[in-house]
Design goal:
With 255 residues, the chain is mainly β. It is built from 4 helices and 15 strands.
Length: 255
């Protein structure tokens, strides 16, 4: 409003702190509000949904302090993606580009992040990665339904995102940890990357057996130093010969 934009407050339900996904067969609860966000008129007189509350930080458990943390995705999400975690009390405030109106049951049963992988805080939005882009989209990964290879992939949230200018420093190296390859030299497979997209193709046989997991990690420390800026060549040259630490990004079950 101070910038001269038309803005309204939208009340409704948000899948924020305390929200848990319904268990299979669990009854859909009645609608309940408890959050608010904004709809703002931007280019071409279109309504854009933003959440400056969640975009500024987050609360933890009882007795834990508020964590001030900029979350750019709360300002850049499409209205459809925004609606995965926000349900307005006024259905006209969904502002989907396809014109469809999502009902309460569809919303509350849906996944709030757009991917079924179990995602962890600290190395996704904070590193400029777009959570809904993490693939495979389904979790668990059913071995019988896969082709000869499975592609794990994700991309940065915006083509203008620069890890040094917008984030905390150069990108970490991302690797895929496969429990089916534990104890081998291939147990952490580095991701290829180009033009803001990361990918890793894995033979189905390497995914292991049902009950095991596949996890995307960052190499958070390498030779006692921060892993930021580590290249695939440096990693491959010293893997298994130097100390390194990993941080979890997202996990899939194998079935």
């Amino acid at each position: 409003m101070k910038a001269g934009l038309e803005s309204v407050v939208v009340g409704g339900h948000g899948k924020g702190y305390g929200h848990t996904k319904l268990a299979p067969g669990e009854r859909v609860p009645p609608y309940k509000a408890g959050h608010a966000w904004n709809a703002v008129r931007i280019d071409n007189y279109e309504w854009k949904l933003i959440d400056p509350c969640w975009g500024a930080g987050a609360v933890g458990g009882p007795g834990q302090p508020y964590q001030k943390r900029f979350a750019p995705e709360r300002f850049t999400q499409s209205n459809e993606e925004f609606g995965l975690s926000h349900f307005p009390e006024d259905s006209k405030r969904q502002h989907r580009t396809d014109g469809r109106v999502v009902g309460w049951e569809e919303y509350i049963l849906g996944n709030k992040s757009g991917t079924q992988a179990q995602m962890y805080n600290g190395y996704v939005a904070e590193e400029g990665m777009w959570e809904p882009s993490f693939k495979p989209g389904a979790n668990p990964i059913v071995l019988a339904q896969q082709g000869p290879t499975v592609r794990f992939s994700f991309q940065k949230i915006c083509p203008h995102w620069d890890p040094v200018r917008c984030g905390k420093g150069p990108y970490y190296l991302y690797v895929l940890h496969l429990e089916g390859l534990d104890g081998t030299q291939r147990n952490h497979i580095p991701f290829e990357s180009r033009d803001g997209v990361w990918w890793c193709d894995v033979p189905v046989k390497d995914l292991g057996r049902p009950g095991q997991k596949a996890t995307i990690c960052t190499v958070s420390e390498f030779e006692g130093r921060s892993g930021r800026g580590l290249t695939m060549q440096q990693y491959k040259a010293k893997k298994g010969r130097v100390a390194m630490m990993f941080a979890w990004v997202g996990t899939w079950e194998v079935a």
